[in-house]
């Protein structure tokens, strides 16, 4: 069997809940993923953490995984997305920590100020989760398709058998409700 056939076989077995297939896929793709990740980000610890996180997510969601014809491409894309998310998050934390230092570069935020900022971010996440619970199942589905999966209104309409206008209005109403809840 070729490298690609092996990975496709591991993928299909993983989708069925075969834990050894997860480890086999990890072992056969790890070095490729590591090299790929290091081209995106020079931080080898971050890349290794993201690879590990990727495989943990694959296992936790193995029942929802789609059939894939090019497993390495799927893994590379997933790793890239994970790395970019982590880099954006780190950039946000860095900006929060150094927000006040623009006025006076010699001043850094204290440990307490950093903790307060992190707690504020956690509070916002909690409030958003609570606000999402007030939406209808259809609104939640469409918001997820639009903002978490990045689909266009046309793609959402096609996937959910709705008109584009209905998809747009449903998402608009959901965002309006979320804004009201988060104020």
From TrEMBL:
The organism of origin for this protein: Chitinophaga arvensicola
GO molecular function (one): sigma factor activity
Descriptive protein name: Sigma-70, region 4
Top-level taxon of the source organism: Bacteria
Domain named RNA polymerase sigma factor 70 region 4 type: residues: 126-178
Pfam families: Sigma70_r4_2 (PF08281)
InterPro entries: RNA_pol_sigma-70-like, RNA_pol_sigma-70_dom, RNA_pol_sigma70_r4_t2, RNA_pol_sigma_r2, RNA_pol_sigma_r3/r4-like, WH-like_DNA-bd_sf
GO BP field: DNA-templated transcription initiation
Keywords assigned by UniProt, alphabetized: Sigma factor, Transcription, Transcription regulation
Family: Belongs to the sigma-70 factor family. ECF subfamily.
Keyword Calcium found: no
């Amino acid at each position: 069997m070729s490298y690609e056939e092996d990975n496709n076989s591991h993928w299909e077995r993983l989708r069925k809940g075969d834990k050894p297939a997860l480890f086999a896929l990890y072992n056969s793709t790890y070095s490729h993923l590591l090299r790929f990740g290091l081209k995106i980000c020079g931080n080898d610890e971050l890349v290794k953490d993201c690879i590990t996180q990727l495989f943990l997510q694959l296992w936790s969601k193995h029942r929802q995984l789609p059939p894939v014809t090019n497993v390495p491409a799927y893994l590379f894309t997933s790793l890239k997305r994970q790395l970019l998310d982590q880099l954006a998050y780190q950039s946000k934390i860095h900006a929060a920590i150094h927000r006040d230092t623009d006025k006076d570069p010699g001043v850094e935020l204290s440990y307490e100020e950093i903790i307060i900022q992190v707690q504020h971010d956690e509070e916002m996440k909690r409030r958003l989760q609570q606000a999402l619970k007030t939406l209808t199942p259809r609104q939640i589905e469409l918001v997820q398709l639009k903002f978490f999966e990045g689909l266009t209104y046309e793609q959402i309409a096609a996937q959910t058998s709705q008109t584009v206008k209905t998809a747009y209005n449903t998402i608009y109403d959901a965002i309006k409700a979320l804004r009201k809840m988060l104020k």
